[in-house]
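Re: weekly structure request thread

Next one in the queue (493 aa):
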Amino acid sequence: MQFLFNNHKIGTDDQEREQSSSSVRTLANGSNGGEIVNGENHEKADGGESGQGAPKGPVGFWHPSLSKTRLKVFGAWARTVLILSTFILAILSLYWAVLFNVEQNLNSLIVFVVNFETEPGALVGPLITKMTEEQIELNSMPHLGYITMPPSAYNYDPIAVRQAIYDEQAWAAIIINANATALLRQAVEQGNSSFDPLGTCQIIYTSARDQDSYYDYIIPELTALQTEATSMFGEMWVKQVMANDSIPRTNLAKAPQALSPGIGFSTYDLRPFYPYVAVPAVTIGLIYLIIIAFFSFTFFLPIHMQFITPGEGHPVMKFWQLILWRWLSTLAAYLLMSLAYSFISLAFQIPFSNPPGIETEVVNNANTFGKATFVVYWMVNFLGMGALGLACENVAMVIGQPWTAMWLIFWVITNVSTSFYAIELSPHFYYWGYAWPLHSIVEASRTLIFDLHSRLGLDFGILLSWVAVNSVFFPICCYIMRWKSQKAKQKGQ
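Done, posted below.
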């Protein structure tokens, strides 16, 4: 009995201790705002900003626990939209504005008017020079920049005028041949059936210099001028001839072209823009030269970083040697990628092996260096990719993501705006474009493919200058990128 009593007492004491401990836990939970249901403690999870327990599962967009995050996201979103909108207005405006004052700047496209008809009683030359000079004086509508040049400036030789146009001293020339009126009178009086009105005047230009400017602005206005001159002269000429009773009507029947139209214009396009497949090689295709050079940075950087990545089972390379390796390997990559780019033009049968032509004659598909033209073309693309790409490498290392995308847009737009359009037609603000890389690439490519007036020395000099300057900044930008990476790593720790 005593044993049973003692056991009962011990069991009672254990129960009392357990109840006491349970009471303590209950009081503790109660003081923390908990509830006891069926002997269990359930926390109140309101998920609010009061610091109480957060929900364990996903919540809705407007849940109170996301209030601070929503404000942070809204602020970042608004700031990003503002930055991008400002960037759009500032940078894309450069592209729109390049042709904003074309009508006012059309007179920057110089056209020489050379009258070789200096004989007394001349009619054709004075009429045409008067028409062009009146357009300049009235200035009532957009017009080309006509300049009347004395024939003595060309030693009275029309071929010298052609040479001036080939040398890009002007965009075009109007030549009134010597004895134009005298030969016309002779044809009417003698009934010369072999008289050709097109031998009266000449129009000279080189459309391969900039096919868009010629086809959009220069040729249409010159065509309109021809039509107006032919009409005005024809009306005056027919009255004079019909009023002259000494001219036998049978002679007029033998040479009706000497009566109407009387005069005409022979057109000489010294270097026509042909073949048309060359359009990408000198315009839009060069955009991809920029893009390829830009994206090569993201492809090659992880490969280079293997030299300085610890834990790969090899020692870390000295940083200055990594910089040298990156610079050399980048230029080597540009050399090979530019060759692949150049092969596209060759594959689509743009001529690169024709001999150069005589500068004052109409020649199709002439190449500046004959069979060596392709090699020079490759070097232009190589230096162009180096000038464009090394700038992208430096900027990408300094500003990092996501700002490099904005740099690419800026780099493309500023180069395209000053390369695919005649800078003469743009506001003077754009004259910095003469020093931009793509302008030299376009000019050099046109020179090689179409045998145009050569400025290859200047073009190569500009491209080499870009490569040299960016090569100087390359190691500095590498150290900046390493400093930013170390700083970000320390911040993460």
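The longest helix spans residues 456-492. The chain is about 60% helix and 5% strand.
Next request, please.
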